[in-house]
Amino acid sequence: MVRRDFLKSTVKIFFLLISIISVSVFSIFTYPWKFKRKELTFFHATDEEALPIKGVRQVFIKHIRGNTQINSKAFIVNSGSELFALSPVCTHLGCLVNWYRPKNRFLCPCHGGQYDMNGKVVKGPPPADLNRMPIKIEDGKVYIGLRV
Amino acid sequence: MGKIFDWIDSRFGVKQPHKKFLERPVPEGVNYAFCLGGASFVFFLMLVCSGLMLSIYYVPSEQEAFMSIVRLNNDVTLGAFIRSFHKWSANLLIITIILHTIRVFIYKAYRPPRELNWIAGSLTLIIALGSGFTGYLLPWDQKAYWATEVGTSMASTVPFIGKYILYLIRGGEDVTGATLIRFYSMHILYFPTIMFLLLWAHFHMIKKQGVKGGL
Amino acid sequence: MAEKRNKEFYPDYLVEISIVIFIAVELTVVLALVYPQLIGRQIDFSTPYRPLPEWYFLWLYQAVRYFPGRWAFIGTVLLPFIAAISLIMIPYIDRGKRGRTRAILVGVSLLLAFVVLTLIPYISP
Lengths: 148, 215, 125
Ligand code: HEM
Ligand code: FES
Description:
The structure holds three protein chains of three kinds. Helices cover 73% and strands 0% of the residues of chain B.
């Protein structure tokens, strides 16, 4: 019966191999290996005279992602000592935060995350501070860097 | 009617192998709580029917999805009704599956030899939740987009490999048209097929083991 | 018992099944007509928005709030995963002498967690 046993294990190994190959091909095929990596691009956001003296101003940046026209938002903050741009994307799970002037805080509507004027987490579940965006001022125009 | 069925059955033979199932004696202590499983199945079939109808008009693309839902709702005869019907059968399916699970638990019907059937049932519940999640994105409106943004971001909180799971689910870094197509495919092909297989296994085991009666 | 055995699938049980089907379809039709699905607003990438999930994911939406910072993955992935596994494993939890008691403990805590976490967002949004 050696022949029979050999045939049995051949069949088993054959089907095992087919399964392993199918599962691997499926996973490799499904994973998005070659999606477009994002590159830092500067967009004109506003003009220098419109910058806040002290406080927060939101600006909108129009750009194109794929075939879709997107109107992104960014906050330009002047804390008195420093001028910087903050991304409105909550670091928790990606909702957009609001600037709430009465409390001088950024509030996230989703799970109650709160950040102060510098983007530091002060309350709620976010694991990190709001991301800073690159900003540069040239010829009186303000540009904000977006990864698109 | 009967004649046509008999003619088909004499060749195809569905009746004979199911005779024992169809004519089985039903155990004592069966009451209306035992309908919940059947009711879930009815809702699932209703979802398949209404879903197949929706998929005739729905366009799963970034540019078209939202407009196709608007068209479906406003221009297609009965469109708004079929959409609502699909949504409500999904909600009722989840409710009846949960109640069915509770019923099975109370009657201890998960005990051997029915463990495997409990597992098949639990997987059905999980797949149903998955269908609900993927279906939520399809209208491609404000609520759909942000709910998916938050929901898929949860995967990225897994230590070390979270980012890669996120890319796999979204088909890229952001929720885009690639995500929409992924979810659409899961929603109308993968999950319903898996569900059919699980339910077939479920019913096969019921046929074999019978319904456990009494507490 | 004798009377029961005389019942046949067709037509006796099929009648009962028809009633279940009828109620299920009718309920859905009525709900769909009374509470139709609305059309949402177009996606807006710049206005903060609070997306509520379907009611059967509200528990998760609520659970996520309790795990800040580095611990977020407990609420988002670990606990739901444990819940799913313990649901699947119930037949194996119910083993041995106090099996049923343990299974009831697990089952009731799963149900309670689901119900309580779902109700919290309704009561205090
Ligand atoms: C063969 C089965 C199914 C097919 C072909 C199907 C197809 C579709 C299609 C084309 C849509 C988009 C149209 C729309 O949004 O109104 C949709 C939406 C949806 N489906 Fe399904 N579906 C199936 C099963 C299910 C199941 C099992 C569930 C849940 C347990 C489900 C839940 C949903 C939900 C929640 C939506 C969103 C409805 C809305 O917001 O309008 N579907 N489905
Ligand atoms: S997404 Fe901002 S708190 Fe959860």
